[in-house]
Every structure is written in C-alpha cells, then in structure tokens.
C-alpha cells in the first residue's frame, strides 16, 4: 500500500516536472522569437533610415512628358517636389493629386527611375468643341466633360455645339455620337473637303446639323453620320462636274435615298473683324 502511494507521488512529481519544463521551453521560445522580431525590426528601421537619408537616392532630375497646352515649368510648380528630396520618400499620390488640379490635366502617371530620376507622364484633355452658356464659352473633351472656361490664353479653333445646356443633367441622345464625330473630323484628313466645322447644332427632332467655313450647311439627321458624309463627297463631286460646287449650299442628308441640295443666299457683309480670336456662333 505504501509502495503504491510512493509510486503515485513520484508519478505526479514527474508529470509536474514535464509540464514545468514544457512551459519553460515555450516561454524561452517566445522570448527568443520576440528578440528576433525586435532585432529584425531595428535592422529594418535602421536600413530604411539609412536609405531615406542617403544622398544616393536624392532626386536630381524630374522629367515631364506629354505636355502640349501646359509647360514643364507649370507642371513642376503644381507638383511642388521639395528640392533634393529622397526619391523613395516622396508621396506619389499627393504629387499626382496636385498636378491633376489643373483643368487641362486628365490623367497623371508618376514613376521612379532609380536612383535619382522622377518621371511625370501627363495625359492632357483634348478639347473637341466649345459650348456657350450665359455668354461664356467652355471647352469640352471627347468624353463630353466640360473642363475649362475659355480664356484669352487658350488658342483653339473649335466648333461650337448649340442646342445643349451645360447644367442639364441629361444630355440629348446624340450628344456622345456628335462628340465622337467632331473628334474624328479633327483627327482624320479624309474629310478635308468639308473645311472647318464652325457649328454643330443638336435638335431633338431633326437631329444634327453642321455649318462649315466653306459655306456648307449639312443636315445629317440622327444616325450614320460617317456614311452620310461619304455620300456627301459623291454629291459634291457631281456638283463640281456641273460647276455648281461654289457658294453656300444647304445639303439635306437626313435620308440618303433622297438627298436634296439648295443654294443659299450669301449673308449681308459682316462687320469688320475685331483683333483677337473670333468665334462663329
């Protein structure tokens, strides 16, 4: 009986020793892990501090790309990058936000070219038309975004869109199609026979009408503008053969199956042009 009791006490002691040894081992492992983490953290902080203060990564050149309306000097003024700042320490998002504050800037891409070159790649908005509201002209890009009031420093030669209000929440159904057409007309050389489009008028019933500086008044209806302009090329070639292509012409292309052409009387002599940019409304 005494022997059994003695064995039981010894077993309990052994179990206690094993648990204590296990707990001490776990504690030692945790302490070692904490020491390792702290050492690595200190090493990382030291390395970051060394890199961020190293003159090797100091910005020595800022390259600005993609500007046309704006200048490199204007972009740098907007970016406000501190002279000799560390290229790894500058806040790219903050710089992009500052540059994008200019209405001409559509998108900004900023890259680091290690060890000392920062690149600002600018995508400017490309205006395709003007729109007039309360006697003031505004610039519109190809997506229909009214991004800037026209100022005396903006040297643009763009058509004016009429029949649309800026503050109207819903634009006419043709609005986006007309902008794409105007962008195509300005970018492509295949429509040079039209001259320069001065006005694009949108009507809820009759659709799109274009006025050009060659005296053409074109009624294009509501669809297939490209096809109708190609048909116009054939019509004008036929009028040229007949000697009737000169003067002011009203060409109704709304229905290409029955195109009509009318000669319009020349307007009264315009007043003498004033100096500076002129906009035909």
How do you describe this structure in short?
The chain has helices spanning 2-53, 72-79, 92-100, 175-187, 225-242, and strands at 61-65, 105-113, 117-124, 127-133, 136-141, 146-149, 160-162, 197-203, 207-212, 216-221, 248-252, 260-264.
Account of the 3D structure:
17% of the residues are buried. The chain is built from five helices and twelve strands. Helix 4 (175-187) links the parallel strand 7 and strand 8 (197-203). The chain is an alpha/beta fold and 281 residues long. The longest helix is centred in the N-terminal third of the chain and has 52 residues, at 2-53. Helix 2 (72-79) packs across helix 3. It folds into two domains: 56-124, membrane protein fhac (Ubiquitin-like (UB roll)), CATH 3.10.20.310; 127-264, 3-Layer(aba) Sandwich (Rossmann fold).
Distance between the termini: 118 Å
Helix/strand-derived category reads: alpha/beta
| Mean pLDDT over the full residue set | 82
CATH architecture of the largest domain: 3-Layer(aba) Sandwich
Oligomer: single chain
* Named CATH topology of the largest domain: Rossmann fold
Shape: elongated
Annotation keywords:
single chain, 281 residues, alpha/beta, Ubiquitin-like (UB roll), Rossmann fold, nine-stranded mixed β-sheet, 5 helices, 36% helix, disordered C terminus
Secondary structure elements and their pairing?
Elements (H helix, E strand, L loop, with lengths): L1 H52 L7 E5 L6 H8 L12 H9 L4 E9 L3 E8 L2 E7 L2 E6 L4 E4 L10 E3 L12 H13 L9 E7 L3 E6 L3 E6 L3 H18 L5 E5 L7 E5 L17
Parallel strand pairs: 1-3, 4-7, 7-8, 10-11
Antiparallel strand pairs: 2-3, 4-5, 5-6, 8-9, 9-10, 11-12
């Amino acid at each position: 009986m005494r022997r059994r009791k003695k064995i039981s006490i010894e077993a309990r002691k052994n179990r206690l020793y094993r648990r204590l040894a296990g707990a001490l081992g776990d504690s030692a492992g945790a302490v070692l892990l904490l020491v390792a983490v702290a050492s690595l953290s200190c090493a990382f902080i030291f390395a970051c501090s060394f890199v961020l203060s190293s003159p090797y990564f100091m910005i020595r050149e800022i390259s600005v790309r993609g500007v046309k309306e704006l200048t490199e000097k204007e972009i740098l003024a907007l970016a406000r990058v501190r002279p000799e700042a560390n290229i790894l320490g500058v806040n790219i998002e903050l710089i992009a936000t500052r540059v994008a504050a200019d209405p001409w800037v559509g998108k900004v891409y900023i890259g680091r070219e290690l060890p000392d070159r920062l690149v600002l790649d600018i995508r400017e908005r490309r205006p395709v038309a003007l729109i007039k509201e309360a006697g003031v002209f505004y610039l519109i890009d190809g997506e229909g975004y009214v991004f800037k009031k026209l100022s005396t420093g903006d040297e643009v030669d763009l058509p004016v869109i009429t029949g649309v209000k800026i503050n109207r929440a819903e634009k006419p159904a043709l609005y986006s199609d007309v902008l794409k057409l105007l962008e195509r007309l300005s970018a492509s050389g295949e429509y040079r026979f039209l001259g320069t489009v001065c006005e694009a008028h949108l009507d809820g019933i009759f659709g799109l009408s274009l006025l050009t500086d060659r005296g053409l008044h074109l009624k294009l209806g509501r669809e297939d503008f490209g096809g109708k302009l190609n048909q116009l090329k054939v019509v004008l070639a036929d009028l040229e053969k007949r000697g009737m292509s000169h003067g002011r012409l009203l060409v109704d292309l709304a229905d290409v199956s029955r195109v009509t052409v009318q000669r319009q009387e020349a307007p009264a002599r315009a007043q003498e042009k004033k100096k500076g940019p002129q906009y035909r409304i």
